[in-house]
Design goal:
Belongs to the ABC transporter superfamily. Glutathione importer (TC 3.A.1.5.11) family. The chain has 273 residues and is α/β, with parallel strands linked by helices. It has 9 helices and 10 strands. It binds adenosine-5'-diphosphate and magnesium ion.
Length: 273
Protein backbone atom coordinates (compact mmCIF):
# COMPACT_ATOMS: atom_id res chain seq x y z
CA UNK A 1 0.00 0.00 0.00
CA UNK A 2 1.30 3.42 -0.87
CA UNK A 3 1.47 5.82 2.01
CA UNK A 4 -0.26 9.06 1.08
CA UNK A 5 2.54 11.15 2.54
CA UNK A 6 5.16 9.42 0.43
CA UNK A 7 4.06 10.99 -2.85
CA UNK A 8 6.48 10.05 -5.53
CA UNK A 9 9.03 8.59 -3.17
CA UNK A 10 10.60 5.74 -5.18
CA UNK A 11 12.03 4.15 -2.05
CA UNK A 12 8.84 4.30 -0.02
CA UNK A 13 8.09 0.97 1.55
CA UNK A 14 11.54 -0.44 0.84
CA UNK A 15 13.44 1.13 3.67
CA UNK A 16 12.77 2.69 7.03
CA UNK A 17 12.87 6.42 6.35
CA UNK A 18 15.82 8.23 7.87
CA UNK A 19 13.44 10.99 8.87
CA UNK A 20 9.72 10.62 9.26
CA UNK A 21 7.68 13.68 10.20
CA UNK A 22 3.97 13.41 10.96
CA UNK A 23 1.54 16.17 11.79
CA UNK A 24 4.28 18.56 12.81
CA UNK A 25 2.68 21.71 14.19
CA UNK A 26 4.81 24.41 15.76
CA UNK A 27 3.41 27.41 17.59
CA UNK A 28 4.93 30.46 19.22
CA UNK A 29 3.59 32.19 22.26
CA UNK A 30 2.31 35.65 21.44
CA UNK A 31 1.12 37.19 24.72
CA UNK A 32 -1.45 34.72 26.08
CA UNK A 33 -1.97 32.96 22.77
CA UNK A 34 -0.19 30.25 20.83
CA UNK A 35 0.20 31.17 17.19
CA UNK A 36 0.88 28.20 14.88
CA UNK A 37 3.46 29.04 12.20
CA UNK A 38 3.95 25.47 10.93
CA UNK A 39 0.79 23.41 10.54
CA UNK A 40 0.42 19.68 10.09
CA UNK A 41 3.58 18.99 8.08
CA UNK A 42 4.11 15.32 7.15
CA UNK A 43 6.95 13.98 5.05
CA UNK A 44 9.56 11.22 4.87
CA UNK A 45 13.16 11.28 3.75
CA UNK A 46 14.50 7.94 2.55
CA UNK A 47 18.15 6.88 2.90
CA UNK A 48 20.34 8.83 0.45
CA UNK A 49 17.41 10.94 -0.68
CA UNK A 50 17.38 14.72 -1.02
CA UNK A 51 14.08 16.38 -0.18
CA UNK A 52 13.66 20.11 -0.74
CA UNK A 53 11.32 22.41 1.12
CA UNK A 54 10.66 25.46 -1.02
CA UNK A 55 8.63 28.53 -0.17
CA UNK A 56 8.82 32.28 0.20
CA UNK A 57 10.37 34.03 3.16
CA UNK A 58 8.32 33.59 6.32
CA UNK A 59 6.52 30.44 5.13
CA UNK A 60 7.89 28.32 8.00
CA UNK A 61 10.80 26.46 6.40
CA UNK A 62 13.39 27.28 9.06
CA UNK A 63 10.91 26.70 11.87
CA UNK A 64 10.26 23.23 10.40
CA UNK A 65 13.95 22.34 10.47
CA UNK A 66 14.51 23.91 13.89
CA UNK A 67 11.54 21.89 15.19
CA UNK A 68 13.14 18.68 13.89
CA UNK A 69 16.35 19.66 15.69
CA UNK A 70 14.43 20.92 18.75
CA UNK A 71 16.36 24.15 18.63
CA UNK A 72 13.50 26.56 19.28
CA UNK A 73 13.30 28.60 22.49
CA UNK A 74 11.74 26.53 25.26
CA UNK A 75 8.69 28.05 26.88
CA UNK A 76 8.07 30.35 23.92
CA UNK A 77 7.48 27.53 21.45
CA UNK A 78 5.37 24.39 21.31
CA UNK A 79 6.02 21.47 18.96
CA UNK A 80 3.32 18.86 18.36
CA UNK A 81 3.19 15.74 16.20
CA UNK A 82 5.92 13.20 15.61
CA UNK A 83 9.51 13.39 14.35
CA UNK A 84 11.23 10.04 13.98
CA UNK A 85 14.88 9.54 13.11
CA UNK A 86 15.42 5.95 11.95
CA UNK A 87 12.24 5.06 13.79
CA UNK A 88 13.21 6.78 17.06
CA UNK A 89 10.88 9.53 18.29
CA UNK A 90 12.80 12.77 18.86
CA UNK A 91 10.09 15.03 20.27
CA UNK A 92 9.92 13.13 23.56
CA UNK A 93 13.67 12.52 24.00
CA UNK A 94 15.33 13.93 27.10
CA UNK A 95 17.56 16.90 26.35
CA UNK A 96 20.84 15.02 26.86
CA UNK A 97 19.86 12.34 24.32
CA UNK A 98 18.66 15.05 21.95
CA UNK A 99 22.01 16.80 22.29
CA UNK A 100 23.68 13.54 21.23
CA UNK A 101 21.36 13.25 18.22
CA UNK A 102 22.40 16.77 17.20
CA UNK A 103 26.05 15.93 17.72
CA UNK A 104 26.07 12.54 15.99
CA UNK A 105 23.14 11.95 13.68
CA UNK A 106 21.93 15.22 12.18
CA UNK A 107 24.07 18.17 11.08
CA UNK A 108 22.90 21.58 9.94
CA UNK A 109 24.39 24.23 7.71
CA UNK A 110 22.95 27.72 7.38
CA UNK A 111 22.87 30.70 5.07
CA UNK A 112 25.71 32.66 6.60
CA UNK A 113 28.63 30.52 7.72
CA UNK A 114 30.32 33.48 9.42
CA UNK A 115 27.75 33.39 12.21
CA UNK A 116 28.43 29.71 12.90
CA UNK A 117 32.22 29.91 12.85
CA UNK A 118 34.06 31.43 15.76
CA UNK A 119 36.05 34.43 14.40
CA UNK A 120 38.82 34.16 17.01
CA UNK A 121 39.90 30.56 16.38
CA UNK A 122 41.69 29.09 13.35
CA UNK A 123 39.44 26.85 11.29
CA UNK A 124 41.65 23.76 11.82
CA UNK A 125 41.11 24.04 15.57
CA UNK A 126 37.34 24.50 15.19
CA UNK A 127 36.94 21.46 12.97
CA UNK A 128 39.21 19.41 15.28
CA UNK A 129 36.91 20.33 18.17
CA UNK A 130 33.87 19.25 16.18
CA UNK A 131 35.57 15.85 15.86
CA UNK A 132 36.94 15.43 19.38
CA UNK A 133 33.71 16.47 21.10
CA UNK A 134 32.12 13.27 19.74
CA UNK A 135 35.04 10.87 19.85
CA UNK A 136 37.96 10.22 22.12
CA UNK A 137 40.89 10.40 19.71
CA UNK A 138 44.40 11.85 19.93
CA UNK A 139 45.10 15.35 18.64
CA UNK A 140 47.34 13.90 15.90
CA UNK A 141 44.48 11.69 14.69
CA UNK A 142 42.07 14.62 14.87
CA UNK A 143 44.47 16.73 12.81
CA UNK A 144 44.70 14.15 10.07
CA UNK A 145 40.89 13.89 10.03
CA UNK A 146 40.62 17.67 9.73
CA UNK A 147 42.89 17.54 6.71
CA UNK A 148 40.83 14.73 5.23
CA UNK A 149 37.61 16.75 5.73
CA UNK A 150 39.09 19.92 4.21
CA UNK A 151 40.22 17.92 1.21
CA UNK A 152 36.82 16.27 0.99
CA UNK A 153 35.15 19.70 0.64
CA UNK A 154 37.79 20.67 -1.93
CA UNK A 155 39.51 23.51 -0.11
CA UNK A 156 42.56 24.21 -2.25
CA UNK A 157 45.88 23.81 -0.43
CA UNK A 158 44.02 22.40 2.59
CA UNK A 159 47.21 21.61 4.51
CA UNK A 160 48.33 25.22 4.38
CA UNK A 161 44.99 26.62 5.62
CA UNK A 162 44.76 24.94 9.01
CA UNK A 163 45.83 28.01 10.94
CA UNK A 164 43.82 30.51 8.92
CA UNK A 165 40.94 32.36 10.56
CA UNK A 166 37.39 32.46 9.16
CA UNK A 167 37.78 36.02 7.81
CA UNK A 168 40.67 34.85 5.63
CA UNK A 169 38.27 32.73 3.57
CA UNK A 170 35.83 33.90 0.89
CA UNK A 171 32.10 33.32 1.47
CA UNK A 172 32.10 30.19 -0.67
CA UNK A 173 35.20 28.79 1.05
CA UNK A 174 33.66 29.53 4.47
CA UNK A 175 30.59 27.55 3.46
CA UNK A 176 32.94 24.69 2.50
CA UNK A 177 34.52 24.91 5.95
CA UNK A 178 31.05 24.75 7.52
CA UNK A 179 30.22 21.70 5.41
CA UNK A 180 33.47 20.07 6.57
CA UNK A 181 32.39 20.69 10.19
CA UNK A 182 28.93 19.32 9.46
CA UNK A 183 30.48 16.13 8.08
CA UNK A 184 32.80 15.67 11.07
CA UNK A 185 30.24 13.52 12.89
CA UNK A 186 29.38 11.47 9.78
CA UNK A 187 25.68 12.42 10.03
CA UNK A 188 22.86 10.32 8.61
CA UNK A 189 20.97 13.51 7.76
CA UNK A 190 22.22 16.91 6.67
CA UNK A 191 19.81 19.82 6.98
CA UNK A 192 20.89 22.65 4.69
CA UNK A 193 18.91 25.84 5.37
CA UNK A 194 19.44 28.24 2.44
CA UNK A 195 23.16 27.35 2.30
CA UNK A 196 23.76 29.20 -0.97
CA UNK A 197 21.46 32.22 -0.57
CA UNK A 198 24.22 34.58 0.58
CA UNK A 199 26.64 33.53 -2.18
CA UNK A 200 27.34 34.84 -5.69
CA UNK A 201 25.57 32.89 -8.40
CA UNK A 202 28.69 31.15 -9.74
CA UNK A 203 29.73 30.15 -6.23
CA UNK A 204 26.18 28.92 -5.51
CA UNK A 205 26.52 26.39 -8.31
CA UNK A 206 29.84 25.17 -6.95
CA UNK A 207 28.41 24.65 -3.45
CA UNK A 208 25.35 22.83 -4.82
CA UNK A 209 27.65 20.56 -6.85
CA UNK A 210 29.71 19.90 -3.74
CA UNK A 211 26.65 18.99 -1.66
CA UNK A 212 25.44 16.60 -4.38
CA UNK A 213 28.87 15.01 -4.66
CA UNK A 214 29.26 14.61 -0.90
CA UNK A 215 25.81 13.16 -0.59
CA UNK A 216 26.80 10.40 -3.01
CA UNK A 217 30.18 9.86 -1.38
CA UNK A 218 28.81 9.83 2.16
CA UNK A 219 25.44 8.21 1.47
CA UNK A 220 23.64 10.86 3.54
CA UNK A 221 20.07 12.02 3.33
CA UNK A 222 19.59 15.75 2.83
CA UNK A 223 16.78 18.12 3.76
CA UNK A 224 17.44 21.13 1.57
CA UNK A 225 15.63 24.36 2.38
CA UNK A 226 15.44 27.15 -0.17
CA UNK A 227 13.20 29.92 -1.52
CA UNK A 228 14.63 29.37 -5.00
CA UNK A 229 12.99 26.94 -7.47
CA UNK A 230 16.13 27.04 -9.62
CA UNK A 231 18.08 25.53 -6.72
CA UNK A 232 15.36 22.91 -6.17
CA UNK A 233 15.76 21.74 -9.76
CA UNK A 234 19.50 21.33 -9.19
CA UNK A 235 19.44 19.32 -6.00
CA UNK A 236 16.29 17.53 -5.00
CA UNK A 237 14.67 14.15 -5.67
CA UNK A 238 11.40 15.22 -4.11
CA UNK A 239 10.00 18.61 -3.25
CA UNK A 240 7.61 19.99 -0.68
CA UNK A 241 6.09 23.36 -1.54
CA UNK A 242 5.39 25.29 1.64
CA UNK A 243 3.03 28.26 1.83
CA UNK A 244 1.98 30.12 4.97
CA UNK A 245 3.03 27.32 7.31
CA UNK A 246 1.60 24.42 5.33
CA UNK A 247 2.74 21.94 2.71
CA UNK A 248 0.50 22.77 -0.22
CA UNK A 249 2.05 20.27 -2.65
CA UNK A 250 4.50 17.36 -2.42
CA UNK A 251 5.89 15.23 -5.21
CA UNK A 252 8.93 14.25 -7.22
CA UNK A 253 10.81 17.32 -8.35
CA UNK A 254 9.97 16.38 -11.92
CA UNK A 255 6.25 16.26 -11.05
CA UNK A 256 6.38 19.58 -9.26
CA UNK A 257 8.12 21.23 -12.21
CA UNK A 258 6.07 19.68 -14.97
CA UNK A 259 2.76 18.91 -13.35
CA UNK A 260 2.64 21.22 -10.32
CA UNK A 261 -1.00 22.06 -9.65
CA UNK A 262 -1.22 24.44 -6.74
CA UNK A 263 -1.45 28.11 -7.78
CA UNK A 264 1.40 28.95 -5.42
CA UNK A 265 3.62 26.27 -7.01
CA UNK A 266 2.83 27.72 -10.42
CA UNK A 267 3.65 31.22 -9.19
CA UNK A 268 7.03 29.99 -7.92
CA UNK A 269 7.69 28.24 -11.22
CA UNK A 270 6.84 31.29 -13.28
CA UNK A 271 9.68 33.11 -11.50
CA UNK A 272 12.29 30.55 -12.70
CA UNK A 273 14.20 32.00 -15.64
P1 LIG B 1 11.24 30.89 6.49
O1 LIG B 1 12.42 30.11 6.96
O2 LIG B 1 10.35 30.11 5.59
O3 LIG B 1 11.64 32.20 5.86
P2 LIG B 1 10.57 30.95 9.28
O4 LIG B 1 10.39 29.50 9.49
O5 LIG B 1 11.85 31.55 9.75
O6 LIG B 1 10.34 31.28 7.74
O7 LIG B 1 9.40 31.75 9.99
C1 LIG B 1 8.03 31.37 9.90
C2 LIG B 1 7.21 32.32 10.74
O8 LIG B 1 7.50 32.10 12.12
C3 LIG B 1 7.48 33.78 10.48
O9 LIG B 1 6.26 34.47 10.53
C4 LIG B 1 8.37 34.19 11.63
O10 LIG B 1 8.22 35.54 11.94
C5 LIG B 1 7.86 33.31 12.76
N1 LIG B 1 8.92 33.01 13.74
C6 LIG B 1 10.09 32.39 13.49
N2 LIG B 1 10.83 32.23 14.61
C7 LIG B 1 10.08 32.76 15.61
C8 LIG B 1 10.27 32.89 17.04
N3 LIG B 1 11.38 32.43 17.65
N4 LIG B 1 9.27 33.48 17.73
C9 LIG B 1 8.14 33.94 17.15
N5 LIG B 1 7.90 33.82 15.82
C10 LIG B 1 8.85 33.26 15.05
MG1 LIG C 1 14.47 30.56 6.83
Amino acid sequence: MVNATNDGNPQAGNAVPVLSVRGLTTSFRIGDEWRPVVRNMSFDIAPKETVAIVGESGSGKSVTSLSVMRLLPKGASRIEGSVRLNGRELLTLDSESMRRVRGNDISMIFQEPMTSLNPIFPIGKQIAEAITCHRDISSAEAKSEVLHLLEKVRIPNAKGRFDDYPHQFSGGMRQRVMIAMALASKPKLLIADEPTTALDVTIQGQILDLIKLLQEEEGMSVLFITHDMGVVAEVSDRTIVMFRGEAVETGTTDDIFNRGKHPYTRALLSAVP
